[in-house]
């Protein structure tokens, strides 16, 4: 091949690489936005659940019993901003406490209990979508080329948020290691 | 809320996805939302007059044992863009986005809150395996994924590495629960009847297995009759019956929605001998809503709907002897039929569109974040963002955020 042909080929490859890089950067930016939006929804819903639990503990302490009310109040307070820094652990403690509530709570307005159950279910939905966004990001970020070219520009890899939510578990491995 | 629904298949051809989109749209409108539908069809005139937009014609391709419609190209892209721009949707809900259809075009064109529902449940889809990685960049834009069954969800997880929440198909329960019976076939009065509904010339619907079983059933219950409703060639079916079975089988042919409900209310036992490929047993839920006791093959989707046999009898698929035994036993035991009928009606209530649509709305509310604006066509947004500091190129040089 003549030097001209080589040059043309090199230019072609460079253009392709540039186009691909731009496209991947767009994808990364889009995914970053999606993860941020999903997290903000999840965060809101977690706080709503904690607030409702705190309401239940402080307004209906007599019905729940002294012990249970104190415990529920403590975990609900802890869930918002845990001292240990482990939010998942704190939210799980709240979830366990809520699930352990007796089915019959005479004197507690039914509306509060329904709202609490709904807040729990909606938190589960938000968590599912957040983790899905994180999974999509992992699948792209852990590819060879984006990693080699450091297209993520040192942004931290988003973390999965794992708490019990009563929804069915994923049946097969689909985590970042599945690829 | 302003909602845009996208149906990938021809509106004028009957099918599960089409009915799903139609019923979801109706129910959401009943709940006070504004719903627009974008769908292909053979002719623009075959769409409803209001709140439906024609996405053009489709090219049929064989897919998953049936015909799927394929549609990609600049013309449909332009239509999609106009629909998105004029709709001002808060959320757009596409169905089967992994098919080469207008749903995929919407995923490629739209930015903003996108929700997708996956219906297909093929375990090994060559299409998905081949193009899954290629279309992934566009599927990444979907912020909320729904699967209509555990099976459909597993396809997602295995082929595309995504997760989805399971929200089942809905059924309008009330029109099935109350109404008249077919004349001459009142349940419990006019001699025992077994019902079959579906495209009876499709082998996967399993009618041959049921016919084989009927030979045994009529020996034990000489008055029993099999009613076959659905599309197909009645001549070929009568040939397949032979002289011995012909008097015990009535071919009703294709029936209307209203007749279908009457049909399900009339039969003493509903039988679904399907061999494979059912993602979801909508017809089983309709039969349960109509109070028909059910004998069905043990497909995953059917077992799920029938609550592992609590709301209906499950038999091994393709096993005509087992099917015959189950049908005969059930015809001989009116008490058990009544119990199954009650259990079925209770189970069907959970699939009522009113319940299901509210769960879909929960998904919409989870992906629509207050204050971020609705769905737009991507190009419009890119033009707007070109001058802004948040474009593509600056991010090359931007330092990591803290």
UniProtKB/TrEMBL annotation, chain A:
Transmembrane annotation, as ranges: 6-25
Alphabetic keyword roster: Membrane, Transmembrane, Transmembrane helix
Family matches, as SUPFAM superfamilies: LemA-like (SSF140478)
Name used for this protein in its record: Uncharacterized conserved protein
Source lineage: Bacteria, Bacillati, Actinomycetota, Actinomycetes, Geodermatophilales
From TrEMBL, chain B:
SUPFAM superfamilies, alphabetized: UDP-Glycosyltransferase/glycogen phosphorylase
The UniProt record lists the keyword Transport: no
GO term, biological process aspect, one: carbohydrate derivative biosynthetic process
Xref: InterPro entries: Glyco_trans_4-like_N (IPR028098), Glycosyltransferase_grp1 (IPR050194)
Superkingdom of the source species: Bacteria
Keywords, sorted A to Z: Glycosyltransferase, Transferase
Descriptive protein name: Phosphatidylinositol alpha-mannosyltransferase
Lineage per the UniProt record: Bacteria, Bacillati, Actinomycetota, Actinomycetes, Geodermatophilales
């Amino acid at each position: 091949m003549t030097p001209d042909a080589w040059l043309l080929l090199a230019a072609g490859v460079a253009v392709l690489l540039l186009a691909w890089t731009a496209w991947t950067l767009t994808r990364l930016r889009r995914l970053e936005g999606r993860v941020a939006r999903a997290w903000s929804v999840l965060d809101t819903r977690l706080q709503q659940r904690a607030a409702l639990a705190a309401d239940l503990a402080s307004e209906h302490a007599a019905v729940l019993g002294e012990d249970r009310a104190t415990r529920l109040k403590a975990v609900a307070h802890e869930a918002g901003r845990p001292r240990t820094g482990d939010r998942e652990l704190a939210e799980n403690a709240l979830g366990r406490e809520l699930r352990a509530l007796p089915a019959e709570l005479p004197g507690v307005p039914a509306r509060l209990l329904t709202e609490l159950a709904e807040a729990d279910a909606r938190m589960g939905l938000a968590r599912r979508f957040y983790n899905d966004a994180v999974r999509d990001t992992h699948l792209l970020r852990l590819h060879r080329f984006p990693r080699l070219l450091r297209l993520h520009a040192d942004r931290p890899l988003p973390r999965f948020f794992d708490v019990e939510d009563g929804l069915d578990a994923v049946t097969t491995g689909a985590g970042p290691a599945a690829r | 809320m302003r909602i845009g629904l996208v149906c990938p298949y021809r509106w004028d051809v009957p099918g599960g996805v089409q009915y799903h989109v139609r019923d979801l749209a109706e129910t959401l409108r009943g709940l006070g939302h504004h719903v627009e539908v974008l769908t292909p069809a053979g002719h623009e005139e075959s769409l409803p007059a209001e709140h439906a937009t024609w996405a053009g014609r489709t090219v049929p391709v064989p897919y998953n044992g049936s015909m799927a419609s394929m549609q990609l190209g600049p013309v449909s892209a332009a239509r999609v863009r106009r629909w998105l721009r004029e709709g001002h949707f808060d959320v757009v809900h596409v169905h089967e986005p992994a098919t080469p259809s207008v749903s995929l075009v919407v995923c490629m064109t739209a930015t903003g809150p996108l929700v997708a529902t996956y219906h297909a449940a093929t375990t090994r889809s060559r299409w998905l395996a081949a193009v899954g990685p290629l279309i992934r960049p566009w599927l990444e834009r979907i912020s909320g994924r729904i699967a209509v069954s555990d099976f459909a969800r597993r396809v997602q997880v295995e082929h595309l590495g995504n997760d989805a929440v399971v929200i089942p198909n809905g059924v309008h329960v009330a029109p099935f629960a109350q109404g008249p019976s077919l004349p001459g076939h009142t349940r419990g009065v006019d001699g025992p009847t077994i019902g079959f509904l579906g495209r009876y010339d499709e082998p996967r619907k399993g009618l041959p297995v049921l016919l084989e079983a009927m030979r045994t059933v009529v020996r034990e219950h000489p008055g029993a009759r099999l009613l076959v409703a659905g599309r197909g060639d009645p001549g070929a079916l009568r040939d397949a019956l032979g002289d011995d079975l012909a008097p015990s089988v009535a071919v009703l042919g294709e029936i209307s929605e209203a007749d279908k409900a009457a049909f399900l209310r009339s039969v003493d036992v509903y039988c679904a001998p399907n061999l494979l490929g059912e993602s979801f047993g909508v017809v089983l839920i309709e039969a349960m809503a109509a109070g028909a006791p059910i004998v069905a093959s043990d497909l995953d989707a059917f077992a799920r709907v029938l609550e592992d046999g609590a709301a209906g009898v499950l038999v091994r698929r393709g096993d005509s002897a087992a099917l015959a035994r189950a049908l005969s036993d059930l015809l001989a035991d009116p008490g058990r039929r009544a119990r199954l009928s009650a259990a079925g009606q209770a189970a069907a209530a959970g699939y009522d569109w009113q319940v299901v649509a509210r769960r879909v709305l929960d998904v919409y509310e989870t992906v629509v974040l207050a204050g971020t604006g609705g769905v737009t066509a991507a190009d419009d947004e890119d033009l707007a963002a070109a001058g802004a500091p948040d474009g593509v190129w600056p991010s090359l040089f931007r330092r990591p955020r803290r």
